[in-house]
Amino acid sequence: MRGVTHARGAVCAVAVALAAAGCGGGGSSSGTGAAVLSSSWGDPQNPLEPANTNEVQGGKVLDMIFRGLKKYDPRTGKATDMLAESIRTEDSRNFTIKVKDGWTFSNGEKVTARSFVDAWNYGASLRNRQKNALFFGYIDGYDKVHPARGEQTADTLSGLKVVDDRTFTVRLGQKFSTFPDTLGYAAFAPLPRAFFTDHAAWLKKPVGNGPYAIQSYMKGSQMSLRKWDGYPGPDKARNGGVDLKVYTDNNTAYTDLMAGNLDLVDDVPAAQLKNVRSDLGDRYINTPAGIIQTFAFPYYDKAWNRPGMEKVRTGLSMAINREQITETIFDRTRTPATDWTSPVLGTDGGFKPGLCGRACEYHPEQARKLIKEGGGIPGGQVRITYNADTGSHKEWVDAVCNSINNALGNGKACVGNPVGTFADFRNRIGRHKMSGPFRAGWQMDYPLIQNFLQPLYYTDASSNDGKWSDADFDRLVDRANAETDRAKAVTLFQRAEEVVRDNMAAIPLWYQNGSAGYSERLSDVALNPFSVPVYNEIKVS
C-alpha cells in the first residue's frame, strides 16, 4: 500500500531545524538520554485522524501514538484487551464496554468512556467525511448520521450511550459476533477533547495515548516521535523514540541503510532482494504477513463494467504467470495467490488455498479465448496504474505486462501507467479518476476473513475503491457477520468470496511477506503480522 532522493545532509538539516534528534546511525538520543532510531517512511495521504487513515504509512504512526480497547498481539495477531477492562454481550448485538482506569492522553487528559463515544460519533458523521466511517456502520443510527443520500439528520449514533465515566454501551443494527475483535483497529481509537476544541492545532501535532508522542513533522522530510514517559500501558517503548524519514524511492533508503545513515528499512526493494542476505545476514527479516496484492478495476467506468467483462477480467488473470514473476522478481518474498485472503489467517480462520481455481493459474490460450468472448480489452490496451515512488512497483508491473503481452501475442496489449507519488496515486483513486486496472495491495486491519472481503468488495465500503457492487455478496457478508458460530461464519464468508471469484471483482496476484533490514545499532527487531515494525520493542545500542 505504500523519485526525488534525500541525501543525509539535507535530512539532518531539517531535523536540526525541527529540534529533532540527529540522524540514523549517529547514536542520537531523546531528551531523557535514551537512544533514538531512524526508519524509512512515506508521507501519509491524509492528516492523522484515526477514522480518516486507511493506508499503511499513516497507520504506522497511529499504531505508535494510540492505544484502543483491543490490541493485536505483535506475534500472533490475536485481539487482546488493552484499554478494555471488559466487553460483555449476551446476544452479539448489545455490548457493554468498561474502560480501564488510570489511562490518560499524553497531554494529561484522562481517557474515559466519552473519549471513545465522541471519537466514534465523529468518525461516523457524514459531515466529517472520514474514510473509515463505514467501520461504524453496524452501530444503530448510522443511517441517520451517515445516510447514503441527502443530509444527515442526527449528530450522534443512537446505538452509543455513555453510562458513567468508564462505561458505555453499544447497540448494533444486527448481530455481529466478532465485533469486539475489530476494536483494535485505529478507527476505533479514543480522542482527547483537544481534538474537538482546537481541531486545526491537533491536526498539526496530534495527541494520542500510545507509547510515543509526536515531537515534530515536516511533510516530505521527517516525522519525529519520542517515547512518552507517562505512558501507563504494558508495552512501553524500549527506545527513546523514532525518526520516520520520508523516502520517495526505497532503493535510496536501502542505500542509506548500508551506508550507516539509516537504522531500519521496513520494505526491502525488489532490486535488492538478490543481495540482501549477503548484505545483512541475520539482520534481514522475511516473514509472512497479512498482505495480498491485487489489481482492482474502475467499475464506475462503463467500459470496464459492461456485460461480459467478467470474462475479460478472468482472461487477464489467466494471462499472468504468477509463479515466474514471484520467483524472478521477488526472490521468495511473495507467493502466488490462489484466493483473496492471506495464509496468515490459517484454514480455520478462512484462508482457502485454491479457491480461485484455474482463474489464478497461467493459461494463455484460455486467456485469449475469454478476452475475445468478453468483447475484448476496453480501448484495446490495459494501462495498469501504480505509484512510482516506493515499493519497486515498476519492476513487477512491467513483468505482469510482459506476461499479458506474451500470452495475448500482442506487444502493446498492456503497459504500465506510473503516478509520481503514493499520495497522488491515492488521491486519483479517491477521486475516481482511474481508467483501467490499478494496483490495490491490502494489508489487513485485523486478522479476520471479514476484513479481507467486506472493506474491499461490499457496496460503498470504505476501501472499495473501484465501486464494485453485488447484492449476493452483500447478503452473504451480512449473514456471516450475524452468525455466532465462528466456523459457520467462515463458511459464509467463503461463499461470498466465491461471488468475488465468479465475477473476478479484482485479480489476486500474490501473498506478500513482510521484509525489513536493520543496522547493527538495533536489536529485538521484528515485524508484526501486519508487516509493520514493532517499534516499541526495538532496542538501540
From TrEMBL:
<dbReference type="Pfam" id="PF00496">
    <property type="entry name" value="SBP_bac_5"/>
</dbReference>
<keyword id="KW-0732">Signal</keyword>
<dbReference type="InterPro" id="IPR000914">
    <property type="entry name" value="SBP_5_dom"/>
</dbReference>
<dbReference type="InterPro" id="IPR030678">
    <property type="entry name" value="Peptide/Ni-bd"/>
</dbReference>
<feature type="domain" description="Solute-binding protein family 5">
    <location>
        <begin position="82"/>
        <end position="462"/>
    </location>
</feature>
<protein>
    <submittedName>
        <fullName>ABC transporter substrate-binding protein</fullName>
    </submittedName>
</protein>
<dbReference type="InterPro" id="IPR039424">
    <property type="entry name" value="SBP_5"/>
</dbReference>
<feature type="signal peptide">
    <location>
        <begin position="1"/>
        <end position="19"/>
    </location>
</feature>
